[in-house]
Write a structure and sequence with these properties.
The complex is a heterotrimer of chains A (about 350), B (about 250) and C (about 110).
Chain A lengths: L5 H5 L2 E6 H15 L3 E5 L15 H5 L4 E3 L4 H13 L3 E5 L10 H8 L2 H4 L9 E6 L14 H5 L5 E3 L4 H13 L4 E6 L6 E6 L13 E4 L4 E5 L2 H15 L4 E5 L2 E3 L3 H11 L2 E8 L4 H13 L8 E5 L10 H4 L3 H13 L1
Parallel strand pairs in A: 2-3, 2-4, 5-7, 6-7, 10-11, 10-13, 13-14
Antiparallel strand pairs in A: 1-8, 6-12, 9-11
Chain B lengths: L1 E3 L5 E6 L2 E8 L6 H6 L3 H4 L3 E6 L18 H15 L4 E6 L1 H12 L4 E7 L23 H9 L6 H12 L14 E6 L8 H7 L6 E3 L11 H12 L9
Parallel strand pairs in B: 3-4, 3-5, 5-6, 6-7, 7-8
Antiparallel strand pairs in B: 1-2, 2-4
Chain C lengths: L1 E6 L9 E7 L6 E2 L4 E6 L4 E5 L4 E6 L6 E3 L3 E7 L27
Antiparallel strand pairs in C: 1-8, 2-4, 2-7, 3-6, 4-5, 6-8
The chains are: A alpha/beta (about 350), B alpha/beta (about 250), C mainly beta (about 110).
Chain lengths: ~350, ~250, ~110
């Protein structure tokens, strides 16, 4: 990462950043604006994070606020719950999504429920950062798609940004929220560069649970989140060569899901294909298809199609390109809706 | 490290690789790790098989407290016992300082077990001359006391064993005659290594190649020098060709 | 590319500093991980430090003969961007496809 001066780090305006830098910048902003914000996790402090996302933050804000933990995900999330009960605003990191499984009890039974269990006396303003999804050919446990698992848990919010600007906005919004948020950063897009409006009062913050249309179109809607938004934009470019005009809807929030946004898009395009990396069965694509069917049944010209990973354990790196939804698989699903 | 059991147990590390195994012998107060590993020799040996040893009184090996246990012949005997246990008939030796004194003794008494030897940081001067070996911890004991104090202060060092080692060595001063028969020797020392003064004469006397002096290095700093490594590995691998099948 | 600075590691035995005996690399050199990097002299011995990274030497922070404290910068490398300890950085590729679409009749 390019070194920025202290002034540059906090200046408002629009700057060109990678997603790593955008997340770093949002964390800086959050640490600076609220002394209750704490960052911690494995290698988060001294090393600056396995993806360099917390680079320089310990040096700037001190080891009391940005610190390393033992290699124990259950302890990381458990500590976050205790800190939140005592007035802090923790932003723990679990290094890789596959490492979240040992912390499921703390996430599901404690973090998600404490506010409810305490009759509202113990809010859980925790943002659990989870580098997520595949695409970097990492070993087992380093690439998973856990959004359906966490979206299924009452009490959690789940969000996945698709580009640097959204990573900055959505992370700041998550940290400021008083509810627990699982923040799924798409590892494969960490190195993407883009303009990011920064500053504590960055404009363009939609309410939590709002999707966005990243490319308008009229023949079908591609619904995606995280790294698959990029894939769908590639598909839309190629489809345009064939005279097919695809809309790409970035769902962003996977809980709560923007049912109104989905219905509005399908009302325009009459067809929908939902694309995700997670396996098909009981994946979030089913939820999206059900919401569209409930809200926009009469608008639909074809059944909602799903293009997903397969119902297999996440494969080894060399097989990843075959596992992740390919351009051709998405195009084929689009063609099915066009021909129905 | 592994330990060869016995009256004086000997700690060693066997690293598999190509060719005749190289037996690595460290200097006084040091050990295989400090003398060789930390100085980058495993990398420099570039895949050659080698055996690192902690000489008796040092590192993980046994630590007798009587000077007689440190006669060069007794210390060389440990090497023979180790080679027997490892099933190594013949080895090369790479040695430094006191280790070179032991290597000389080993090559002298068992020339059939030593193919070639590199003797580093070594010469005919008596390192113990002018030192009162019964008062090694005294501030005015003589030139060797500084070496002794540094060695004795190392974590895990056994000052009583090291003192006995010094006395045992001093009781059997080095003489260049007789020389090991039929064992090619290479002498290497730092340019400013005063403990190696006169090594050129020894090299000439035994008919070895001229001693290699490492520019700008002394007794302590020559051990990691690239020039030492290049010379030693070149000497040990000289003329080595794959077996021809005869 | 990213820059990574290697600081003098704890050499053990209570040593707090070391002096540079000889650099085995120079700025501009490409080094492999674990290749010999620098020789140092401590109060106790001479040691050779292997390179902790693969990359290009950008600059060295201490002249030969200089004393370096444990934790002080020793050398800065230029290394390829990496996702950290696992995986590979995805390469941008031109999207390709085989499937062609037929636009709907309107």
């Amino acid at each position: 990462m390019t070194e920025l001066s202290v002034d540059e780090r906090h200046a408002a305006g629009t700057v060109e950043l990678t997603m790593q830098q955008a997340v770093n910048r949002a964390l800086r902003t959050a640490l600076a604006e609220d002394p209750a914000v704490l960052l911690f996790g494995e290698d988060v402090g001294r090393l600056g994070g396995v993806f360099r996302v917390t680079d320089g933050l310990q040096a700037e804000f001190g080891a009391d606020r940005v610190f390393d933990t033992p290699l124990a995900e259950s302890a990381i999330v458990g500590m976050a719950v205790g800190l939140a009960m005592n007035g802090f605003r923790p932003v723990p990191e679990l290094q890789f999504d596959g490492f979240a499984y040992p912390a499921v009890d703390q996430i599901v039974n404690q973090m998600a429920r404490m506010h409810y269990r305490s009759r509202g006396t113990a809010p859980m303003p925790i943002t659990l950062r989870l580098p997520s999804f595949g695409g970097i050919q990492a070993p087992e446990h380093h690439g998973e798609s856990l959004e359906a698992l966490f979206a299924h848990v009452p009490g959690l919010k789940v969000v996945a940004p698709a580009d640097p600007a959204d990573a900055y906005r959505l992370l700041l919004q998550s940290v400021r929220a008083d509810d627990p948020v699982v923040f799924m950063e798409p590892k494969a897009r960490y190195w993407d560069r883009g303009p990011v409006p920064v500053g504590a009062d960055a404009s363009g913050m939609d309410p939590i649970g709002t999707s966005r249309v990243v490319r308008p179109g009229r023949h079908a809607t591609l619904v995606a989140w995280g790294a698959m938004v990029h894939r769908c934009l590639e598909v839309a470019e190629l489809a345009a060569e064939d005279g097919v005009d695809l809309e790409v809807l970035d769902l962003r929030w996977l809980k709560p899901i923007d049912a109104d946004g989905l219905a509005a898009s399908v009302a325009r395009t009459r067809r929908a294909v939902v694309v995700h990396e997670a396996p098909l069965t009981a994946g979030l694509g089913a939820e999206v298809a059900a919401l569209i069917t409930e809200r926009a049944f009469r608008d639909l010209a074809a059944p909602v199609q799903r293009v997903t990973g397969f119902d297999v354990p996440y494969p080894a790196g060399p097989l990843e390109p075959q596992y992740l939804p390919t351009i051709d698989r998405v195009l084929f699903a689009v063609q099915r809706t066009l021909e129905f | 490290m592994d330990v060869l059991p016995g009256e004086v147990p000997i700690a060693y590390t066997e690293v598999p690789g190509r060719g005749v195994p190289v037996l690595l012998l460290h200097g006084f107060g040091s050990g295989y790790d400090a003398n060789w590993v930390r100085a980058g020799w495993p990398h420099a040996l570039d895949g050659l098989a080698h055996i690192g040893v902690d000489l008796r009184g040092h590192g993980g090996s046994g630590r007798p407290r009587d000077a007689g246990a440190y006669r060069p012949a007794a210390m060389a005997g440990d090497l023979e016992r180790l080679l027997d246990a490892l099933g190594v008939q013949r080895c090369d030796v790479l040695a430094y300082s006191m280790g070179s004194r032991i290597a000389w003794e080993f090559a002298l008494t068992r020339p059939d077990r030593v193919r070639r030897a590199v003797l580093g940081g070594f010469g005919p001067v008596d390192a113990f001359a002018g030192t009162d070996l019964d008062r090694l911890d005294a501030p005015d004991g003589g030139p060797f006391t500084e070496v002794f104090r540094a060695a004795a202060a190392q974590p895990g060092a056994d000052p009583a064993a090291l003192a006995a080692c010094a006395r045992g060595q001093a009781a059997h001063p080095f003489t260049a005659d007789p020389a090991p028969a039929g064992v090619p020797l290479l002498f290497v020392a730092g340019e400013h290594d005063t403990l190696a003064s006169g090594v050129e004469d020894v090299a000439r006397a035994v008919g070895a190649a001229p001693a290699v002096r490492v520019p700008r290095r002394d007794h302590r700093t020559a051990v990691s020098a690239r020039a030492f490594k290049t010379a030693a590995v070149g000497f040990l691998t000289r003329g080595v060709r794959p077996l021809s099948g005869v | 590319m990213a820059e990574v600075t290697f600081t003098l590691p704890d050499l053990g035995e209570g040593l707090v500093e070391a002096s540079v005996l000889e650099w085995l690399v120079a700025p501009g050199d490409t080094v492999e991980r674990n290749a010999p990097l620098v020789e140092l002299e401590t109060a106790k011995s001479a040691v050779e430090i292997p390179s902790p990274h693969a990359g290009t030497v950008a600059r060295v922070h201490a002249e030969e003969g200089a004393v370096v404290a444990v934790g002080a910068p020793l050398v800065t490398f230029e290394v390829a961007d990496a996702p950290g300890i696992v995986g590979t950085v995805p390469r941008a590729e031109k999207p390709t496809r085989r499937v062609r679409l037929t636009p709907p009749k309107e």
